[in-house]
Amino acid sequence: MFVSFGFVYANVLGWLLPIKLFIFACIIVPVIFTTMFFFQPKSPVYSIQSGKAMEAMEALKALRGSKYDVTAEMKTIKLELSIALGGSNFFQLFKDRGVIRGFIISVTLLILKHLVGSTLVLIFTSEIVKACGFGDIAVKSAVITGGMIQALASFVPLYLVDRVGRRFLLIIGFSITLISSAVLGAFYVSLDRKLLSPNLLNTFSFVPLSALALYWFGYGVGLGNIAALTAVEIFPACFRAKLKCFSEFVNWSASFVVTMTYLQFGEAYGHDLLYFFYCFFSMIGILLVIYVYPEASRKTSLEIFDEIRKRKHIFRRYRAEPIRGLR
Asked: Total domain count for the chain?
């Protein structure tokens, strides 16, 4: 969500401000964000690990509300912290098959988030809109609009995730990126291979723009927030921080590699092939969610971790499940 609003913030101010003021405006945000952290309560998990149970209870009440009964959550945190897998040795954790499977699931989902073109479609929106024949003002407006659609769509999971489940939203997200990428790939086939005349392409320029808008919406609804939460939800508190940090390292490394190779790949093989690759990885994402990803809604991290660990293999026992709230 912060990433989505960060794109909107940077795009709007980048249009309105000169470069020096724009840089200052970008610097001030992390400064304010960091300053606010000094006034935040400490992590309840850290407080319990340090033997400060009362401080953990106060932190939970500050996070959940003063009337929130913290007893059950305190017991859950203590139970998760009681698990000992390899002690303080990070690599010893991977001797447990539950950790290996959970790590593979979380990292694969994070990498797929970039391999379906999530970051690239927003970063290179201006190039796509220019290819449709629009001028500079329309390009800037499209970039800002795309960021706003994605940011607003990121609120949808907040209201639906416990009702329909994470797997359902992930499937919706990957399905939308599949359809949108196919449309954009077909557009670039017609553009780069000169299969259609320029006049005809201009006539149907609304088609790739609609696909872009749909892509932004699908990413905000199904991929942006939920993929990032996976590593937090499927690992117990005792080693969650270590694996989450490593997962994020893989996440942003994948983002860097995919972003840096976009232009070179497009020039070498054509942008149409690139978007068809996004289609392929979107399909892989759908299969991953259906046959591997555990449903995390209304379950504790320990329950999710035990379910992954007890599988005969990494694939889940698939069965058709009714969507919560829609039965």
From this structure: 1
